[in-house]
Write a structure and sequence with these properties.
The protein has about 475 residues and is mostly helical. Helices cover about 65% and strands about 5% of the residues. The strands form 2 sheets. The chain has a two-stranded antiparallel ribbon with strand order 1-2. It has a two-stranded antiparallel sheet with strand order 3-4. The radius of gyration is 39 Å and the shape is extended. The model is unreliable at about 1-50 (pLDDT under 50). It is a multi-pass membrane protein.
């Protein structure tokens, strides 16, 4: 059998020399220092040990007349456990990747199902939000021995009456000034035309007429598209009104029969899960209530400061615009934009371009402070979320589901945080189902129905 040879990459092959075979029989110096030189085997380090040379017949060996072009590596010698540990790490990574893929696929399916059922889910969500506002007065009436149906009906009718009365109070002010505003708008357009005819634009009457004719021709050429957009908008408005009516009807049933929901749900789960179901239901309900309170507070701040700005610059319709701003706060992005645009338009028509620019600055400043500073701080404290998380939740919601997503992004993120913290505390053995007073919910009853009671939790004072 011939002698095995090793060749470094990049070195041309060469026939074995006569001294190559003798290299295996000669002693070799093993260096322990950082010696240099390849032929003599004497190191330049601190010491050396002489022993039999290994059987090397490749390039760089003792018998190779060519000098070796490599030195010992500084990497440690691989251990016998490296391969086994690498395979174990790869197996763990593969299992984790498979789990991540399964979870991602499940989330995709869940979102797809929610998207298909969104027509049904949206009125339910809006009804729950209405119920958070209407439940406190309903609970007050029920504590004073009002029948549940009567208390719910009275509160709902009072709510609708309040909204209708507010509209009735604002409508006369708008009707009284709409004619003057229309005349001022016509005068404002004439002033803009005269301004364009003067320096520095120097546009004569004929050119303005040509521009107007071009605009009319453009509108006429796109009449079908505009009609389609109008039909789509009208359909959206109709769907919105239908969802609003359904949400109000569902809110009535929620505040009428809502106290039966948690006992029924706990009765379906079992005695061990009942405290957890009741505690999570209470926490999620409190989160939704907190969201409505905070949105109302933010809307009040917007309406107050924008109304003060309108009053300072003597812009008409201060109260209607302030009310519009307040309700616009409950519809992120579009609500603020529409309310601000109305304020600037009325200021332009009534007071001129300089006051309109000032009102635009006031609206922009208030909305920037509210959207980027006030709202994240308030919602972050109320929901125990960081301000950056609030901003990201609004951004993600608006990107995925538009205006409704921007409106529901923060409460959804807060609900996810509530479930996560509850699960984390349960895994850590902290008993999140136990209230601050040391009591927990227990389901009891018989075949006629289940009820919830409070009892002292085991391991607490008195338990």
């Amino acid at each position: 059998m011939g002698t095995m040879r090793f060749r470094l990459p990049g070195r041309p092959d060469a026939p074995p020399s006569a001294g190559a075979a003798a290299a295996t029989e000669r002693p070799r110096t093993t260096r322990s220092g950082t010696g240099s030189g390849t032929g003599s085997g004497t190191g330049s380090g601190t010491g050396s040990v002489t022993g039999p040379a290994p059987d090397l017949s490749g390039e760089g060996g003792r018998g190779d007349p060519r000098a070796a072009d490599h030195e010992a590596t500084v990497a440690p010698t691989p251990g016998w456990e490296r391969g086994r540990r690498a395979m174990s790490a790869f197996s763990t990574l593969a299992v984790a990747s498979a789990q991540l893929l399964l979870i991602s696929a499940a989330l995709v399916v869940v979102f797809w199902v929610l998207g298909r059922l969104w027509v049904i889910l949206l009125p339910i969500v809006l009804g729950l939000l209405f119920a958070t506002v209407l439940w406190p007065p309903t609970r007050f009436l029920r504590k004073h021995r009002w029948p549940p149906a009567l208390a719910a009906a009275v509160v709902l009718l009072a709510f609708l009456g309040l909204i209708g009365g507010l509209i009735a109070a604002i409508a006369p002010q708008v009707a009284d000034q709409v004619t003057d505003l229309a005349d001022q708008a016509t005068s404002g357009l004439e002033q803009i035309q005269q301004w364009l005819q003067g320096p520095p634009f120097n546009i004569d009457q004929e050119q303005i007429g040509q521009y107007v004719d071009q605009a009319i021709d453009s509108v006429q050429s796109n009449a079908s598209n505009i009609a389609g957009y109008a039909a789509t908008g009208a359909s959206a408005v109709g769907n919105g009104l239908l969802n609003l009516v359904l949400a109000l009807l569902l809110a009535f049933f929620f505040i009428k029969d809502g106290p039966r929901w948690v006992p029924w749900l706990t009765a379906q789960t079992g005695p061990k899960a009942a405290p957890h179901v009741a505690a999570l239901s209470q926490k999620t309900w409190s989160t939704l209530s907190e969201f409505i309170k905070q949105q109302a507070f933010v809307g009040f701040i917007d309406a107050l400061f924008i109304g003060i700005g309108l009053w300072i610059f003597d812009v008409p319709l201060v109260i209607p615009l302030a009310v519009l701003t307040f309700f616009g706060a409950f519809i992120p992005i579009i609500g603020a934009f529409v309310a601000g645009a109305f304020a600037v338009l009325i200021a332009l028509v009534d007071e001129g371009p300089y006051v309109a620019l000032a009102i635009f600055g006031v609206v922009l400043l208030v909305q920037q402070i509210e959207g980027n500073v006030l709202q994240p701080i308030i919602q972050g404290r109320g929901f125990n979320l960081h301000a950056a998380v609030v901003i990201l939740a609004v951004t993600a919601g608006s990107s995925l589901f538009g205006i409704v997503g921007a409106f529901l992004g923060v409460p959804v993120a807060a609900l996810i945080a509530v479930v996560y913290r509850y699960t984390r505390d349960a895994f850590d053995g902290r008993h999140p189902e136990v209230a601050d007073d040391g009591t927990q919910t227990r389901v009891s009853g018989d075949d006629d129905g289940a009820v919830l009671t409070r009892e002292q939790a085991p391991g607490t004072a008195g338990g």
